Amino acid sequence: MSKEKIKSIQIEAEAAIENSKTSQELYDQKVKFLGKQGALSLLMREMGKLPKEERPAFGKLVNEAKSQVEAVYQKKEALLNEQEMASQLAKEQLDLSLPGVGARVGSRHPVDIVSKEIVDILARIGYSVRSGPLIEKDRYNFEALNIPADHPARDMQDTFYIDEDHVLRTQTSPIQIHALEREHLPLRILAPGSVFRCDADISHSPNFHQIEGMLVDRKVSMADLKGTISYFVEAFFGKGLKTRFRPSFFPFTEPSAEVDCSCFICKGKGCRMCGHSGWVEIGGCGLVNPKVFENCNIDPKKWQGFAFGFGIERMAIIKYGVSDIRLFSENDSRFLEQFQS
Amino acid sequence: MRISLKWLSNYVDVAEFFNKPEELDRLLTSVGLEVESVENQAEAFKNIVVGKIVEKGQHPDADKLSVCMVDIGAKESQQIICGASNHKQGDHVVVALPGANLPGDFSIKKSKIRGVESHGMLCSLSELGFADSSEGIIILPQEAPVGKAYTEYAMLNDVVYDISITPNRPDCLSHIGVAREVSAVLGRPLNLPVVEFSKVKGKTENLAIVELISNDQCLRYCGRGITGVKVGPSPEWLRQAVESVGMNSINNIVDITNYVMLETGQPLHVFDANEIGGKKIIIDQSKNGETFTTLDGTELKLTGHELMIRDGQRPVALAGIVGGLNSGVTEKTSTIFLEAAHFTTQAVRKTARKFKIDTESGFRFARGTDPEAVVRVMNRACQLIEQVAGGEVCETYIDHYPHPVALPKIEISMTYLQERLGYEPSESDFKMWLERLEMKVLNQKGDVFMVEPPFFRPDIESDVDLVEEYARLNGYDKIPESFPELVHAPTDHYRSFVEHHTVCEALKAEGYLQALNYNFLGSEFQKEFLGDSATALSSAGLTGDVKEAVSILNPLSDETNSMRVSLLATLFKNLIHNYRHGNESGRLFEEGFVFQRSLRGEKTEYNQYQRVGLMAWGQAVELWSQSESRPVVFDVKGAVEGMMARLGASNFQWRSVTSENVPSFVHPGQVSHLYFQGKAVGFIGSLHPSLRKEYKIRHEVALGEFDVAALMNGYPRKPKLQEISKYPAVERDIAFVVPDTLAVIDILKEIKKIVGSTLVSVKVFDIYRGKGVETGYSSMAFRMLYSDSKKTLGEEDLSVIQDKIIHGLHKKLGLSVR
């Protein structure tokens, strides 16, 4: 038992630790020298064989050696941990330019997106949606809307007939009549939906979509109508866009107007979108014709109203710059998948 | 309606608009006469001048081309190559200079023709659009001033406006009508033509007497004879006038009737007086079964419900619409009977629509004419016929007007006017506009006016019509913007609207693209696709009976003649379109209506149902992950399950389908019904392979359709919350050898039954066939998740449960552990 032996074990231990290549090897050396059965621990046990007076000095020496080896071990352990983490990180590197897994976004049809957006804008000022049958009775599609049989106003709409008394509705306006017949006044309603005209060509589809709004109250003026449309135009197309009314004719409104809004692409300066006029036609409107109220047994002396309507495809064409109306009905994935948001 | 500015200038001063045609466009549009297009001749013939050929030489490189030096009134003569051969030195010609744009969008530029420069073109009649074909270039008279604009020389300075006249303004279907509107807006005098004859002779009654029987449909009938006319070509002014607005010149008599109609809006008809049988004209209904041949030779079968002009023996005109071949003006005609009448809009419209005859005359009568103007217009036509065809106008004329049309008297207050406009109107302006519109103020009490509109404005019937007149003439731009007050609580959207968007959002979240199809399709295609699946679809809670499809009486084509009874046929059309455009995989859905008729007693009812359909084809693209492909029908199934979860409808079951309930377009071995709230609400399945074969679709196709009302019954649904266990859940797997005849759903059900409430979930996580597993069997691995609400499950507890499953499945289903 000598200092030399302690020293030689210490040197052997430190060398073995320094030479460890992996944390497993290092751990093995730790067990070999510092573990309960390790060389240094065994020295301590042998201390009992020494004379009593030599024991403290010897113990001190062994403990010093042990703590020095311990320090070397810890330094080596930190170094190996660091190296091994670095190599793991290097190994685990992924190319995150690869596509994400499992994302399937889906999309909504642009006509439906626009329809919903219009509803949302007008719902904020108290309008709510009504609906009605697509195969409609003559009375609702025409008669009650002040378009009697053999009246010139019927020329305005080419109609698909189902039988003598039923047509594919040519407009969403019959929903006005259903509401006027059934509901309590005052009223603010919206009627989005499919409509039909038998005059298809490059710019007309035989089955397209309209949205119609109607307000009925005690006193309703053209100014109220213009204010409402103007609110809508700014909310839908953008702040600062202007609304213009032009005189027109619809049998169920009087006075009637076509609605133009200043072109949202050129802001009214004139461009291809607006045919260099600065204005884009978006729909029609007017004060509810008293005859319509009379047809629904409502006293036009007590109630007034206004109504307005837009072509939804037209709004979508303007909003998204869709070049060909066929795109709306072909349902080509390459077109549809662009409307994810 | 085409309106010529030159023609218009006969009745109102519009001189300033020749230079600024767009200003009249703006003016007309601002009062409700929407101008759709403006054809400006001066613009169309810009950079075309009168020139003189000062030198004509041969092109060095082309026999048929000449090189001309042309004096165009400028300092230097221009070198122009010409391919014609009818010109010589000294000729005056029409020269299109660079910058000119000839009809057919042919723009003239400086160019080189076979190496020789050409600075324009010498024009022919056809090149200027005046003839369909022509030989050689135009040689002008020597007096034609060199350098002068050709439009000025040829007086081609007209502007033609195409105006879309709304049905309420029949008075504007004429030049005088539009002139009247312009005169009202601008406050300028209206100059109506003065009617006078050089001399009158004889009696109209000697040519024909008139018997007005159907006086409820013909309110007024007038006629005047002219003897000794000479039918021939129209003079230049007349031909140009009718052609300028797009009508063909026929002969002087017919052209005058057209001219006067275009001038006044009142249609006229001329009979050869010698062809009027029995010297009698009768206005009466047709006789059922008789035939009538129109001027253009079309034979009509009459039904007894048409208003006719007849002579003593036969029908001679379809009243107000078209004359008969038997009595019209021919080259031999010398005595004519000119008809001017007022037919009701309904009588003319009904007949014109029935026979689909579209004439200028019928169009105007159907829109409404002026009953008071009839005699004046008839005389105007007589005057012009006398001028262009000679002859003598009869001294007397016929005028049957048994029940003169009465004018409405309209009461309107300034208060009402203000209320409807939303701004304060000016009383003096109101009076001014009424006066300019030829409306009479019968009396005024305080702010209440009693107004009588003129006969030519049948659209003015009540106070709101006068509100519109004030608003439009004062300018719609004067209307301010106000905001209607909201004093009542808003109501809810209709369910169908909310349901539509809820279902659409639920499927969008599954990665499906929303399609929107026409509600109709070809009945043949619908029949071919759906086949005889009515019973099968009905067992799935759906419609789809092609025999009860609603047909359209007047479809645009056979491709759009039937309303759809299912969403799947149109979605399949979308698939075909996509497939043909290279989209070999796709996921579409549509939420919309289908239609089916039914009988209720004697009456046909048209029912409309809200449906959602899905169509998926090809594998969803997996770019780089290793997962193997799964049958596409499971993609649809997953989407439907996701949709159900989002609708809060997780309590549904898939059930197998007996063979008689498989729709003919569906694979009989790949189909399942969806049950919800105790009934079938739709189905999923794969497309029948025979349809894939027929349409050459190489990829799998799966589809599904559901009844939205059934899915949404009880929506919105609140989730039923369950306590979550404080103790951790543990996962355990077992694999069984399962015969192919056994449905997985039955094993899962059995496991649930065996374990009871400790089972949180059970899933199939692997299916293996092949080596080590007998044919007709698969090794199916189940993964169970266990949790107990009272304690942490230990190994012992778990092995007890696992053993119960193993024994239970063996006993109940004969399965053994693999």
Task: Explain what you see.
The complex is a heterodimer of chains A (341) and B (818). In chain A, α2 (23-34) packs antiparallel against α4 (55-91). Chain A starts with a helix and ends in a 5-residue tail after the last helix. Helices cover 41% and strands 20% of the residues of chain A. Chain A has 341 residues and is of the alpha+beta class. The relative contact order of chain A is 0.10. Chain A has 12 helices and 10 strands. A 7-stranded mixed β-sheet of chain A has the order 1-5-6-10-9-8-7, sandwiched between helices. In chain A, strands 2-4-3 form a 3-stranded antiparallel β-sheet. With 818 residues, chain B is an alpha+beta fold. In chain B, the strands form 11 sheets. Chain B has a 7-stranded mixed β-sheet with strand order 29-32-33-37-36-35-34. In chain B, strands 3, 4, 5, 6, 11 and 12 form a 6-stranded antiparallel β-sheet that branches. Chain B folds into 6 domains: 2-42 and 158-186, Phenylalanyl-tRNA Synthetase, Chain B, domain 1; 46-153, Beta Barrel (OB fold (Dihydrolipoamide Acetyltransferase, E2P)); 204-400, Phenylalanyl-tRNA Synthetase, Chain B, domain 3; 410-478, Phenylalanyl-tRNA Synthetase, Chain B, domain 1; 495-711, 2-Layer Sandwich (BirA Bifunctional Protein, domain 2); 730-817, Alpha-Beta Plaits. The N and C termini of chain B lie far apart (87 Å). The longest helix of chain B is centred in the last third of the chain and has 19 residues, at 795-813. In chain B, β35 and β36 form a beta hairpin. The model of chain B has no long low-confidence stretch (mean pLDDT 93). Classes of the chains: A alpha+beta (341), B alpha+beta (818). Chains A and B meet through α5, β1, β3, β5 and β6 of A and α8, α11, α13, α14 and β29 of B.
CATH superfamily of the largest domain in chain A: Bira Bifunctional Protein, Domain 2
> In the CATH hierarchy, what is the class of the largest domain in chain A?
Alpha Beta
Mean pLDDT of chain A: 91
Largest sheet of chain A: 7 strands, mixed
Tell me which CATH architecture of the largest domain in chain A applies here.
Answer: 2-Layer Sandwich
The helix/strand class of chain A is: alpha+beta
Count the beta strands of chain A: 10
Low-confidence stretches of chain A: none
CATH domain fold name of the largest domain in chain A:
BirA Bifunctional Protein, domain 2
Biggest interface reads:
A-B, 85 and 92 residues
What's the domain count of chain B? 6
What is the CA-CA span between the terminal residues of chain B? Answer: 87 Å
Gap from first CA to last CA of chain A: 83 Å
Task: Quickly count the helices of chain B.
Answer: 22
Total individual domains of chain A = 2
- Which range best describes the helical content of chain B: under 10%, 10-25%, 25-40%, 40-55%, 55-70% or over 70%? 25-40%
